[in-house]
Amino acid sequence: MTNWPDDADGDVFRSLQADGCDFSKTYDIDFFVDFEDWPPSEEALAALTAQYDELLIQDEEEEEVPCVVIKLQAKLSYEFVTETQKKLTEIVQPFGGVCMDWGVQI
Question: From 73's CA, which of 23, 40, 56, 101 has a CA 20 to 30 Å away?
Fold first, then answer.
């Protein structure tokens, strides 16, 4: 059993563990990038596509809260998730963006 920090990401990892997640496997992990103003600027999207191959724009018609989704394949680890969120936020912060949410299907 792993002891993750007492924060929102740690809570998700505890929930995944309770659901029987195999942390040795590779999963598609979705990172959700939110922007103060929608749609995001072309510059923001260009900054993301310069770093990441696969991104999906979910607009108001598809989701209640529109966002940009970055899908990455990786083994689930607290460090990977938190570092990726930090990196994404650093990329989009100049454009009014932030990455605080992620999800995975196990």
Answer: 40
Structural domain that includes position 58:
23-104
Euclidean distance between CA atoms 26 and 3, whole angstroms: 20
Dist CA 76 CA 12 (whole Å): 11
Q: Largest Cα–Cα distance in the chain?
A: 44
Amino acid at residue number 25: K
> What is the number of structural domains in the chain?
1
Cβ atoms of residues 68 and 56 within 8 Å: yes
* pLDDT tens digits, 42-91: 999 999 999 998 899 998 776 678 999 999 999 999 999 999 999 999 99
